[in-house]
Amino acid sequence: QTLLELAKKMPKTELHLHIEGTFEPEQMFAIAQRNHVALTYATVDELKRAYQFESLQDFLDLYYQGMSVLLHEQDFYDLTMAYLKRVHDDNVVHVEIFFDPQAHLERGVSFETQIKGIYGALKDAERDFGMTFKLIMSFLRHLEEKDAFDTLALAKPYLDWIDGVGLDSSEVGHPPEKFVNVFRECKSLGLKVTAHAGEEGPPAYVWQAIDEIGVDRIDHGNRALEDNNLIATIKQKALTLTVCPLSNLKLRVVDSLVEHPIRCMLRLGLNATVNSDDPAYFGGYMNDNYAALVEETQLTKEELYRLACNGFEGSWLDQPTKAKHL
Ligand code: HPA
Ligand code: ZN
Fold first, then answer.
1. Would you call 302 a catalytic residue per the annotation?
2. Which domain holds residue 138?
3. CB of 90 sitting under 6 A from ligand 1
4. What ipTM is given for this predicted complex?
5. In this structure, which of 5, 9, 145, 207 has its CB flanked by the most CB atoms within 10 Å?
């Protein structure tokens, strides 16, 4: 079998996925209609034509606009279930998904509404597909640390459903150190911790994520490669990098996949993984990301296996469950 066939068939994990970034235009229009809310774009095609981004911020503006039609528990359930069905077809057997509670709270959608819909779909996929999952609540870094604390307070009744916390949204100008106190509190509650770092932000932000926040892994991490001491530290701590090839291409973090750093990360001995980030916006789900790497980067069979294995190793599954998947 070809490498591409192998990539598609092998069991995989998704460790970097924003559930709001799986909102396909067709579903967005359907939910907008049933909720009687208007979208800025008149048709699915018009919306899709707007998916041309020069930067992370360009994308985020559309991302927050798109999710604004999500109002009810059923909307969050339908969004999540559509994604889980889609990646079940890609043989993704374990997912760790982010949601952005603050982006919905500010629109008047309660924490309870959001998490009940998302968690309900995850439980149904566990029952129906044998899929395992972790749920990660992400703080919006363009807001203040105080807002993150307020969100954490709302999450307290649901901590049994939440495995970890993350940090996303506009990176430059909002370094990890801005959130040192809230992450310390999260850790004391037993939550795992990750943060987007080094997507557009400098190596200093990745250092802060490690030294000041004490992250359990790093989302993206591309720009860590600019600093040899940082590379050595990530390796020594065996921190997993949740890399997102098609996202990086769409958001101009790289100019082409040929020059994508993921193979370099593997050569350096870093635990790089493949993930889709916001697949509805970036042109592909899990297998599309693997297919793009196979087709554009001369990935070897060994590298393919390594990437898939790194996904299980870098997951927050307990050892027996990992073993069951492999
Ligand atoms: N980076 C930062 N914030 C995000 C992203 C991303 O790729 N996707 C959704 N929120
Ligand atoms: Zn992301």
1. no
2. 3-325
3. no
4. 0.96
5. 207
